[in-house]
Amino acid sequence: RGSMLRVTPLTRRVTVPHLRLNSSPRARQLVSAFSSLAVRAQPRRLSSATPATARLLRGSASRASADAGETAVVAEGAEGESPAASPAMAGDGCAKLAALRARMAAASVDAFVVPSQDPHFSEYVPTCFERRAWISGFTGSAGTAVVTAREALLWTDGRYFLQASQELSSEWTLMKGGQPGVPEPKQWLAEKLPSGAKVGVDASVHSLNEARAMRDVFAKHGVALECLATNPVDEAWGDARPPFPTAPLRAHPAEWAGKTAAEKIAQCRAALAEKDADALVVSPLDEVAWLFNVRGNDLDFNPVALGYGLITQKNATLYVDQSKVSDELRAELKKEGVDVAKYEACVSDVKALAASGKSLWVDPEKVSAALVAAAEDAAADAPSSAKKAKTEAGGEKKTRGAKKAVVEGASPIPLAKAIKNDAEIAGMVEAHLRDGVAMASFWCWLDKQAREGKTHSEFEIGEVVRSFRAKQFGFSEESFATIAGEGPHGAIIHYRASRESARVVGSDSLLLCDSGGQYECGTTDVTRTHHTGSPTAFQKDAYTRVLQGHIALASARFPEDTSGFVLDVFARSHLWAEGLDYRHGTGHGVGAALNVHEGPQSVSPRFGNPTPLRPGMVLSNEPGYYEDGPDGFGIRIENLLVVREAATSHAFGDKKYLEFYPLTLIPIQKKLIDWSLMAPKDVAWLNEYHAQVWEKVSPRVEDEETKTWLKDATKPVTVRSFAVVSE
Fold first, then answer.
1. Residue 77: pLDDT above 50?
2. Residues 657-707: pLDDT tens digits?
3. Residue 91 above 80 pLDDT?
4. What is the pLDDT of residue 494?
5. pLDDT of 81 above 50
6. Going by C-beta distance under 8 Å and a sequence separation of 6 or more, which residues neighbour residue 474?
7. C-beta atoms surrounding 645 within 10 Å
8. C-alpha to C-alpha distance for 199 and 97, rounded to whole angstroms
9. Predicted confidence band at 607 (pLDDT cuts at 50, 70, 90)?
């Protein structure tokens, strides 16, 4: 009895201090006793870190070596308690956590971090990488799970507080990220775990910067970061884990791309020369798709495929599942100077380049710690002759020594991708004209249903929205799952209705509908808030202040090189005047027939993004207000805008001045406006906007009932002495 160190009832794991489990009669007696109870003996591994992560972990705290001789004995066979049975218990949160904890124990880690991302740090990930959603039950697109032997915690941001509180089971603790007194996951782990503890991670789904930040915080508290060779969530998931996607790759039409892949590759090579690096590693999927002018269907909502890119001065390689590439596409890429290789070959090619003395340019925010560690270890293990040859090849630069294997810095692709060329902007304009027809048809349909006393669930509303878009030429899929929130569900910022959770939309409903489409020419994202009956005074007040903020930002003029955070106050000031606000950014970048969320540009109160807005950038303008509670509601008004040069009378400081031009062409409901709050310039803006909607969208509307609805919805308003005189 004195030889047993600890017992954990949840996993029925018993630890005994013997260097070899069968090295003594006493130990053999224990094994025999445990076997009779359907308990198996399992040697405990000293470390699950792979050699490729050794350099990443340099300097981390190490666990005391006293555990080196421990052997774990793990229970099996007890119905409802067996970690090995986890795939069959996919709906049981307790069983999933038990299974994960068993794998953590086998890997000798005291905690494991489960982020949302895949190896390419995508916002939406293929189902095979939805590890955080699987283990926690939280389905929002942003969040981090942390599991220890006794606790399970989920961090997310203000967009998802309400959703997470509804989706997490009692085993989980919701950590409201960004709120006072709520530490970040790494800080929580460093402070809660004892010195000598190990935190496990899968280095392939943590960026280099993220992994370093964890390591540094942990080291201050004597906690080690352990990069595991196998993700324990995958082990717990077992055979139930979905397979990798296999959708075919397709060429993005030159008509809408505006530049050839060869031209974009040339831009990258020029940047490489300026950076004094030999190869550019491209990991984010939208960057790969943009660079090579290809699109895919591996992720929901984003037309991209799992792949990497590698650009040198002589070669350009797309790494992707070979079965996705047709002979025709392969030939087309070859003409552009692009080779196609197996997805898995990227790691070996990166290692080969590093081993030969070449330097690789990586974006530490967007390339995984595992890929960087592989390059650095390959360079460190390379024969000295390769390093010497590289140094001598540098000519007059050789006095500075050999180049580093990894050169860090922001990739040149995001900014180039964000500044749309004329063809891309034309494609976005065309996509929004089609979207205008689809959404006018939807809102006409909904108003008619309400007049006739017919009701529909939020889930059905989402299906109807999609059906109207699907009628438009070139539509391929939604750009994100439609958010159709009635009443209090509208206050869940990124709500997604299910058949079970959906509320009814009827003849007196306030509906927030945020939706978008992917067309072959462009991407759309629009939110409208619509009342089918009689809004309350508070709803009208909040709606009007949101609209005023929307108008203020849309009307803003600003000098070039202005960062988005400088403009955020325009959208919030009318809400702030009454002590109201919202917990999300005001604007995000949008891709051209690509991801609905892209950077580096944004409009947000956070000062961390200094990226200046430039002509050709596309952003959303989406202030809102969300009232929680059983009688709550949500309000958001969103258009997409393109930045363009403004025609000003002066140019102070010899600077150009910029403005926004609306891409979205969908009516804004007038019933919800409190006209006593609207300034004359606000009314003038609304009338001008609606005139554009009618002029550009109505010629494309074939249904006469929809055209009549659109005519009424865009009719100008005259306001005198704060009273509506005519519409």
1. no
2. 999 999 999 999 999 999 999 999 999 999 999 999 999 999 999 999 999
3. no
4. 84
5. no
6. 431, 434, 519, 520, 521
7. 12
8. 16
9. confident
**Nearest to 342, CA basis, from 362, 324, 308, 319:** 319
> Against a cut of 0.85, is the pTM above it?
no
Give the type of residue at 245. P
Residues 6+ apart with CB under 8 A from 216: none
Report the DSSP pairing between strands 316-320 and 339-341. Answer: parallel
Structure tokens at 578: 């009454």
pLDDT (mean) for 513-525? 98
Using an 8 Å Cβ cutoff, are 302 and 481 in contact?
no
Dump pLDDT digits (tens) for 249-295: 999 999 999 999 999 999 999 999 999 999 999 999 999 999 999 99
Give 254-278 as a 3 state SS string: HHHHCCCHHHHHHHHHHHHHHHCCC
Place of tokens 């004597």: 222
For 57, the enclosing helix (H) or strand (E) is helix 54-57
Q: How does residue 721 score in pLDDT terms, banded at 50, 70 and 90?
A: low
Task: Give first-to-last CA distance, the chain, whole Å.
Answer: 87
Residue 546, pLDDT > 70, answer yes
Residue with tokens 């949840």: 10
* Contact of 119 with 139, CB cutoff 8 Å: no
Residue appearing with tokens 């390591």 = 215
Query: Is pLDDT above 60 for 9?
Result: no
Give the pLDDT score at 71: 33
N residues, the chain: 727
- SS3 of 485-551: EEHHHHHCCCCCCCCCCCCEECCCCEEEEEECEEECCCECCEEEEEECCCCCHHHHHHHHHHHHHHH
Place of tokens 């929901």: 300
Alpha-carbon gap, residue 525 to 537, rounded angstroms: 28
Q: Residue 312's closest CA among 260, 365, 349?
A: 349
Structural contact between residues 317 and 347, judged by C-beta atoms closer than 8 angstroms: no
Q: Which residue has the tokens 């890997």?
A: 107
Q: Which pLDDT score is estimated for 158?
A: 85
Rounded CA-CA distance 543/692 in Å is 22
Say which amino acid occupies 301.
Answer: F
* Concatenated DSSP letters of 434-491: HHHHHHHHHHHHHHHHHHTT--EEHHHHHHHHHHHHHTSTTEEEESS--EEEEGGGGG
Tokens linked to 179: 């709120």
Backbone angles phi and psi of 149, in degrees to 5: -65, -25
> What does the buried/exposed string (b/e) look like for 245-274 if buried means 16 or more CB atoms within 10 Å of the residue's CB?
beeebbbbeeebbbbebeebbeebbebbee
Question: Are the beta carbons of 644 and 422 closer than 8 angstroms?
Answer: no
Please report which confidence band the pLDDT of residue 414 belongs to, taking 50, 70 and 90 as the band edges: very high
